[in-house]
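re: that chain from earlier
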Amino acid sequence: MKKVIAYLLVFLALVTFGIGQLYLGYNAPTVEKYRLFFMCVLLGGIGGSLYCLRGVYLNYSVKGTWSAQWEPWYYIRPIVSLMCGGISFVFLKSGLLLLEAASKPDSSELGFMALALIAGLNVDKFISKIEDIAQASWGIEKSRVSKES
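^ sequence. v structure.
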């Protein structure tokens, strides 16, 4: 369990450092061009690592049900959350996910970043929502895992 906590804290520190670098502006022109995308990816990672840290706390301290069999999940989940943060950006930018009914010219990037954080926090529901969009838009069936849950 200590290795998992150390991994999650290092992961969280690296992602937070990355966000700091994006905000301080020490970016190459290519990075600056895609700054919002990178911010969404990193915020998804923060959401995932916070979710996992909460899971350690609940399973070890509150419920007393810690099991080493779940350790791979704690290592993989923050990485999947990074990807979901990036995917949330792509779906918002493409218009397949909407934050509000009318687009405002002065709207900020905060909606993108908030959804990325939520996508990282709740990967299962986010993927289910993406599968709903794929099914409605293109007729692609949901995965077996989504059908079972």
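Residues 35-62 form the longest helix (28 residues).
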